[in-house]
Design a protein that fits this description.
heterodimer; A: alpha+beta; Rossmann fold; OB fold (Dihydrolipoamide Acetyltransferase, E2P); 6-stranded mixed sheet; 6-stranded antiparallel sheet; 8 helices; B: 500 residues; mainly alpha; MetI-like fold; 21 helices
Chain lengths: 374, 500
């Protein structure tokens, strides 16, 4: 295994730029998630790394070895990069065992022990070895595809939205098995996904892509707590965004005067909270009083929609079963500090205050990207 | 490279059409007026169109009725009926008409022709309609019943609109086949364009008269083909929502079960039992006069050899076109694919006429040789090969190539270990379809076969034309036996292989 370094990578299809000067470093042995909405160029990036397409400019290096760019292009078959496509892509005319041993040297292909070992690595039993792929469930197919990619001991494994075609229950189970297998094999891995929960839960570091550029590259906790801008904030999780006035190191907003996570110049700004930071209690004289508009009850927790006196609607995540009912008046207190973003009069303005659902970019400038390069 | 090959294939396919167009220009307007605008052509037009309309109507009623009974009603032994209703396809239309006219010489009328060709062609409607019935979401019918509709109202207001595409497609197929039909109608002495072209050709060899008749026939075919292209471009109705369709609860027929069974039995008896019984009768009658097994064997051998060569040629020609149609989707690929379809919509008699004349004029050393005959087969049956090859290429998306490359396989390795194994079933199916079509091909073989080369169809034809029904029977029996496997294939996978 080795690290992956992508430098200033650029790629256009006909006249549409898809990647514009992208830099990325994936340390050896880590799992990095490429997170972004459809059309942000993440699959294109994956194909350039794998060697299925050539970049217009920039370089791709595995460890110290440049495999693309700077006047050279190593063909995909000599890069030693494992690839797990979206739906698994198991060869339909070959058995599970023949699929797994496809990339092995001819002598090792008949070695049943190696196939059993790889099946065990991805958490499957040896009895599946002789089955044709179409007799496997979607999750099993993905695991076999991973075993096939890991078999030649690649220096890097690329996974292209491997769980998106699975239903929710299977997805969780497959995700755990894949993470386990990647860890056990010690492989360096890059996972493309548009599911922020998947990226946050599986990856050692998350690279957020937007409009063909890398916006932020960091570990999941930092990404969630310190997103670079409000777009990234809403993309990686549900967010409460409020207009605020920064004065004396505190933010004055619809939820009162709140502590700041970091310093911010005085003046107008927007502040970011996560719904789990809001706490509700019986109405008191001190805090702002809000009215419960509706409650989404999930069992393990609930989302409570609250109308603030200012007319803004925000949501709070509450654990347990002690949840207010519609029409209740409650007082909101905020736990922890909020993250301020100074208003930039020249930049794009988010028009609405309140809660933004996870997985969306507020700023729709990405929608001009072609959908086909997702 | 692939593109150049595909262009060559399209050019060959369009050769007969080009010939007809060029001769029309040669003949000039005055010639056209003299040769086309005359009472004889009007008579042929009337004969042809009333036969096409009548047959399409009868086939539509028989096909839809039988499909509803088999797919949606409680009639007993539905799977058996399904096979029996597809089985008439194993009997070539000219064999069917031989079987009828040899028993009932009085069938040489409009009604007789209508009866015989309808019995031969109704499976072309039955197959796609039955397949569509199977694909319909039964939940829609349940919903309609829940809204208070009767079984008849459900059929008329829910099922029929969804069957429209299959029904129209099947009807167009019947019409196109009928326009190209020569053997069956010649045997029934029912004059249409094909028989008239053949007679003209026999009388004047390559006169302008035959070519102009062919021109009118080609125009009719192109009109139908345009209709089919428009239809194919339009999508059918898709099921909304995912998940598996629940099994259908058949409509209980109650006291109507017996009449329904009687109807199906009568249809199968007329379409299948009569021709087979007639063949059996003439087999027995001919056997008493002595059966030349050696000649039969030699003729079968010649036929199988020609069919195998044609199958290889057609599949080889279909590969570049089918590959481009999937992997390089675009206007050029579509144009090339359509050219191949267009070329083979031309009736066999016209293709043969064009190749006879062109080979005499341009390449006399090729006249009446096997390559020209194979070229005619390839032009006529190319779409069967393209449809299956194309479907196979679709089964092998580029992702497999990518994965194999990432696993270290070189380009020749990928072709050997991934692409070819994935394409093999489609290539095999395409070759089988062409093979079976050639085994029963009559018209082009009659005109193009080298002197002394006899196939099952032409041997059968010369014997039955001389009214030696007993001597003709063994060739017909061998053809039916060879066609039977294709029928089994069709009854399993109804959407395949119907596009001719």
């Amino acid at each position: 295994m080795s690290s992956l370094t992508v430098t200033d990578l650029t790629k256009s299809f006909t006249t549409t730029p898809v990647l514009t000067g992208l830099d990325l470093h994936v340390p050896s042995g880590s799992l990095t998630a490429l997170l972004g909405p459809s059309g942000c160029g993440k699959t294109t990036l994956l194909r350039l790394i794998a060697g299925f397409d050539d970049p217009d400019a920039g370089t791709v290096a595995l460890g110290d070895r440049v495999v693309a760019g700077a006047g050279r292009s190593v063909p995909a078959r000599r890069r030693g990069i494992g690839f797990v496509p979206q739906e698994g892509g198991l060869f339909p005319h070959l058995s599970v065992a023949a699929n797994i041993s496809f990339g092995l040297p001819r002598r090792q292909r008949r070695d049943g022990g190696r196939v059993r070992e790889l099946l065990g690595l991805v958490g499957l039993g040896p009895e599946l070895a002789d089955r044709p792929p179409h007799q496997l469930s979607g999750g099993q197919q993905q695991r076999v595809a991973l075993a096939r990619a890991l078999a030649p001991e690649p220096s890097l494994v690329l996974l292209d939205e491997p769980f998106s075609s699975l239903d929710a229950a299977l997805r969780e189970e497959t995700r755990l098995a894949v993470a386990e297998a990647l860890r056990a094999s010690g492989a360096t891995a890059v996972l493309v996904t548009h599911d922020q929960a998947e990226a946050l839960s599986m990856a050692d570091q998350v690279a957020v892509l937007r409009g063909g550029r890398l916006v932020q590259l960091t570990d999941p906790r930092t990404l969630y707590r310190h997103p670079r801008d409000l777009d990234v904030a809403t993309f990686v999780g549900e967010a409460v965004i409020l207009d605020a006035d920064i004065r004396d190191g505190r933010a004055a907003c619809a939820l009162g005067s709140l502590a700041l996570e970091r310093s911010c110049p005085a003046g107008p700004a927007r502040v970011l909270l996560r719904p789990e930071q809001l706490r509700l209690s019986a109405p008191t004289e001190t805090g702002p009083v809000a009215r419960v508009r509706s409650v989404d009850f999930y069992g393990h927790d609930s989302r409570v929609w609250l109308d603030l006196p200012s007319g803004v609607t925000v949501s709070a995540r509450l654990e347990g079963t002690d949840v207010p009912v519609v029409g209740d008046a409650v007082t909101i207190t905020v736990r922890g500090a909020v993250l301020p973003f100074p208003s930039d009069p020249a930049g794009p303005q988010h028009s609405r205050e309140g809660t933004a659902p996870a997985g969306t970019f507020l700023d729709e400038d990405v929608s001009t990207e072609p959908a086909r390069v997702s | 490279m692939t593109l150049a090959l595909a262009i060559c294939v399209a050019a060959l396919a369009l050769l007969p059409l080009g010939y007809i167009a060029a001769s029309t220009v040669d003949v000039g307007w005055a010639g056209i007026r003299e040769l086309v605008f005359r009472p004889r052509v009007g008579e042929l037009l009337w004969n042809t169109s009333r036969l096409v309309l009548g047959t399409v109507a009868v086939c539509a009623v028989l096909g839809v009725g039988a499909a509803w009974l088999v797919e949606r009603s409680s009639v007993p032994a539905r799977r058996v009926w399904h096979v029996l209703l597809v089985a008439p396809l194993a009997v070539p239309a000219f064999v069917n008409s031989y079987a009828w006219i040899s028993l009932l010489p009085g069938l040489d009328t409009y009604a007789g022709a209508l009866l015989v060709v309808s019995l031969s062609y109704f499976p072309f409607v039955y197959l796609p309609v039955a397949a569509t019935f199977r694909g319909l979401d039964p939940a829609l019918e349940d919903t309609a019943r829940g809204l208070g509709l009767s079984s008849w109202a459900v059929f008329r207001r829910v099922q029929l609109p969804q069957l429209r595409v299959a029904l129209l497609g099947g009807s167009l197929l019947v019409a196109l086949h009928l326009l190209a039909e020569f053997g069956a109608l010649q045997m029934l002495r029912y004059p249409t364009f094909t028989t008239a072209i053949y007679d003209q050709y026999r009388a004047t060899f390559n006169g302008a008269g035959a070519t102009m008749l062919a021109g009118v026939l080609v125009l009719l075919c192109l009109g139908l083909l345009l209709a089919e292209l428009r239809l194919r471009g339009r999508r059918g109705y898709a099921r909304t929502g995912g998940g598996a369709a629940r099994p259908v609860r058949p409509v209980a027929l109650g006291i109507l079960t017996l009449p329904a069974l009687a109807g199906l039995a009568a249809l199968v008896a007329l379409a299948l039992a009569v021709p087979l019984a007639s063949l059996g009768y003439w087999m027995a009658a001919g056997a008493s006069a002595g059966l030349d097994l050696g000649l039969l064997g030699a003729t079968t051998g010649t036929t199988l050899g020609l069919a195998a060569a044609a199958a290889v040629a057609a599949v080889a020609m279909a590969l570049p076109t089918g590959w481009l149609a999937v992997r390089a989707r675009g206007r050029v690929a579509t144009l090339l694919e359509r050219s191949a379809y267009l070329g083979s919509a031309v009736p066999g008699i016209v293709v043969a006429l064009a190749l006879v004349t062109l080979s005499i004029r341009a390449t006399p050393w090729l006249y009446q040789t096997v390559p020209v005959l194979l070229a005619a087969y390839a032009i006529l049956f190319l779409p069967r090969a393209i449809v299956t090859v194309r479907a196979a290429v679709e089964q092998s998306p580029p992702v497999y190539d990518d994965v194999a490359a990432s696993l270290g396989a070189s380009a020749p390795d990928r072709l050997r270990r991934v692409t070819l194994p994935l394409l093999a079933p489609g290539i095999g199916a395409g070759a089988a379809l062409v093979f079976l079509a050639v085994v029963t091909e009559l018209t082009a073989t009659l005109l193009l076969a080298p002197t002394g080369t006899t196939t099952l169809a032409t041997a059968f034809w010369s014997a039955s034309s001389a009214l030696e029904y007993g001597a003709a029977a063994p060739y017909a029996v061998v053809m039916v036996l060879l066609s039977a496997p294709a029928t089994v294939l069709l009854s399993r996978d109804a959407r395949r292989g119907l596009t001719t």
